[in-house]
Amino acid sequence: MTIRLGCIADDFTGATDLANNLVRAGMRVVQLIDVPSADDRQAVRQAEDADAVVIALKSRTVPAADAVDASLRALSWLREMGAEQIYFKYCSTFDSTPAGNIGPVTEALMDALGADFTIATPAFPDNGRTVFKGHLFVGDVLLADSGMRHHPLTPMTDSNLVSVLGAQTTRPVGLIDHKAVAAGADAIRARIAELRAQGVGIAVVDAVSNEDLVRMGEAVRDLAVVTAGSGLALGLPTNWDIKPSPAAARLPSPAGLQAVVSGSVSVATNGQVREFLRTGRPAFSVDPLRIAAGENVAAEALAFAEAHLADGPVLIYSTESPDAVRTVQGRLGAAEAGELVEQTLARVAQGLVACGVRQLVVAGGETSGAVVQALGITGLRIGPQIDPGVPWCAAALPDGEALHITLKSGNFGGPDFFSASLDLLNEEAS
Ligand code: ADP
User: Fold this and answer.
1) If both were cysteines, with which of 169, 289, 303, 307 could 103 make a disulfide (CB 3.0 to 4.6 Å apart)?
2) H-type helices in 91-133, by residue range?
3) Which residue in 18, 82, 107, 1 sits closest to 54, CA to CA?
4) What is the secondary structure of 187-249 as a DSSP string?
5) Ligand 1, from 261, 264, 267: best to mutate by most atoms within 8 Å of Cβ?
6) How confident is the model over 259-296, as pLDDT tens digits?
7) CA-to-CA distance for 430 and 425, rounded, in angstroms?
8) Where are the chain's structural domains?
9) Domain 5-245 adopts which CATH fold?
10) H helical segments located in 29-147
């Protein structure tokens, strides 16, 4: 089978966000970590069994030429897999600078596809992102009055997306305003025809509700490429007669032993570790100072895990209070401490999988990246949602075995996230 929708996301969590929305709208989705190498048969096999593939790049804040290059490589892989429509996904706060990267990547994709027209909308009303008269609102305030004004890498000081995007593109940028969007797919198509006749290449589209996104989805079915936040995902699957269904999130049945690896130091994760300890489950604390002193902490952690894994989930964690983390950082340096802990936890994850762990919860954004890389995972089939934006996934290990994994960054999840997520995975399967 060939894939329907080929998606290119400009960062990892944004990719997961989009994948999650597509699954909720009924598509079976695989998220790939970067563009697969030419010999990655695993990625091809996973993609062949999906309606949509989301390739996660790290192209949001790199130089525009690099973002274009990576996006075009993703495009050719997706086209080779038969993708019928391309979805360029960026942040719902339109994170970019006058140099890009939203504009340059959009135009490069249009050029490669021979497309003379596309849309742009970061609207995601469920998350408080709405677009009206081309202006982006974050909750109740305009983008330029939100915290994004002071973002260190992509400060957003203009809320008018027509002018923001116009500054990044060579093609004229226009607007499909709410009057057309509210009137339905035919009115949107008529407005597209009008803008095309005027020579407009990219149109910002207003959307203040999910219904707006659904109407928009229907109207853009024939565009070779669309560009949006993750909200438009709600409106596209029906173009292939795909409806929301629990089957979209079904993963292979979980098997094997259970473990949690936590290198997150955020407040929510501290609470989750405390809760796990409170319930008397086995947990091993990884001390960065002992790693720095040359002790083989990973081996100790694995010996501890092996002794307890048969009885249920085991937690290996470096999570500490902000004060304790500051002390360690003061002694080792923040970057050095982070690197040491990430490497150790990645080795622990490898060892756990070697011991038969096949259900793994990972806490921490950076930690997740290190673990996924160490395990050689290149693709994740997206399963049921545990918490908004945090799904269970099924990954193929390099030897073809399945690993159920969830990657929880920072402040996601309630206090009982670790055991609740494992319970949910096994309930879904039963
Ligand atoms: P989060 O998603 O909560 O920000 P991350 O994994 O992205 O979690 O980042 C946490 C960083 O802190 C990682 O680089 C990790 O290695 C580092 N770290 C984890 N535990 C400690 C600790 N006890 N002392 C110092 N640094 C730590």
Assistant:
1) 169
2) 102-113
3) 18
4) HHHHHHHHHHHTT--EEEE-BSSHHHHHHHHHHTTT-SEEEE-SGGGGTSGGGGT----GGGG
5) 264
6) 999 999 999 999 999 999 999 999 999 999 999 999 99
7) 9
8) 5-245, 250-429
9) Rossmann fold (3.40.50)
10) 41-48, 64-80, 102-113
- Band of the pLDDT at 430, cuts 50, 70, 90? low
15-39 residue pLDDT tens:
999 999 999 999 999 999 999 999 9
User: Taking a C-beta distance cutoff of 8 angstroms, is the pair 29, 50 a contact?
Assistant: yes
Cα 359 from chain centroid?
20
Q: Which amino acid is at 150?
A: H
Q: What is the DSSP code string of 356-399? A: TEEEEEEE-HHHHHHHHHHTT--EEEEEEEEETTEEEEEEE-TT
Return the pLDDT at 389.
80
What radius of gyration, in Å, describes the C-alpha atoms of the chain?
22
The model's pTM is 0.92
Q: Is 329 in the pocket of ligand 1 (CB under 6 A)?
A: yes
429 has a pLDDT exceeding 70: no
* CATH superfamily membership of 250-429: Four-carbon acid sugar kinase, nucleotide binding domain (3.40.980.20)
In 277-320, the DSSP E strands lie at: 283-285, 314-317
Residue 328 near ligand 1, beta carbon < 6 Å: yes
Q: Which two tokens stand for residue 243?
A: 């409806």
Report the distance separating Cα 191 and Cα 195, nearest Å. 6
Q: What is the pLDDT of residues 139-151, one digit of tens each?
A: 999 999 998 898 8
Q: Would you say the CB of residue 342 lies under 6 angstroms from ligand 1?
A: yes
Residues near 162 by beta carbon (within 8 Å), at least 6 away in sequence: 134, 173, 174, 175, 204
